[in-house]
Amino acid sequence: MIMVHAEGRRRARLRYWVLGAVAVLVGALLFGAYGWQPAKADFRSPYLAAMVSRYADTPMARFHYIEAGSGTPLILISPGGSTVIGWKDQVGVLAREHTVYVVDLPGQGYTQVKDPDFGYNLNAMTAAIGSFMDAVGVRQAGLAGNSWSGGWALAFAQRHPERVSKLALLDATGLDLPGTFMWEALKIPILGELAVKLSTSRSAARGLAEGMLVHKERITDELLGEWWAPMTFPANIRATYLLERRLDWSATERALPSTKTPTLVLWGKQDTIQPVERAQRFADLLPHDQIYILDGCGHAPQLDCPDSVNYHLQAFFAPAP
Predict the structure, then answer these.
(1) What is the 3-state secondary structure (H, E, C) of 61-109?
(2) What's the pLDDT tens digit per position in 169-196?
(3) Is residue 187 situated within a structural domain?
(4) 118 and 229 assigned to the same domain
């Protein structure tokens, strides 16, 4: 009888220990997801000091952008999760014939959202493009985007074809297909919040960058700092997992056959985020497109293979004679 009672007590203690450990783990996960905030980077951008940051205030957001050149307007939308640095090798080249705007949309870079009800979905992001264009007095422009920003540009062109003269999609979203496991995991509550926060360390940012580019030598300390610092902003952290959960590309893909905007599709053959096969799907569905696969390039070809990208963008966006 004594042995039975002792065994019962041991089992009870084990249950309490297991329940306690689970409670501690759940508490730690909840704190990490909703209580803890990574340190915000103390960083002064040399690139923006040289290019001169500008801001366009609207009721929706205070849009951060840079501007260069003169001529027909061309808007380069900062790659999803990045900043205007994502187009650093294109601005000067394209500014020879265009007024080039490079803009951070809400949740990206240095733009500050004012609207407390901003949705971080496709409706909100396309509305943001129109809001920025209105704020800088551009009625119609060529648009270019990479990754998420390519999908946003595509959706805007579908909804407002009169405002987009030409469209360039670089390794773009916009197809109703799942992302990689890492990105799909961000859709899971608690796990997604925690994963985004843990990815904001400088070393984690370097790992992400190296996974996206074939030419690792292009990831200099200077580029990494420019890329990484805005990833630590609390508003951008929140935007990342909300966008992953709320962006629905089904309507965008359905509308591809009726998309009339002349479109250039550029794709890195070694893309590890958006497989190169997706470029052909865009080409098959878009009625007015040119497609080029860039060998030796990853998910951000404008950073990975700037000369090739510049050649195609210059030719595609060249003003009519």
Answers:
(1) EEEEEEEECCCEEEEEECCCCCCHHHHHHHHHHHCCCEEEEEEECCCCC
(2) 999 999 999 888 777 887 888 888 888 8
(3) yes
(4) yes
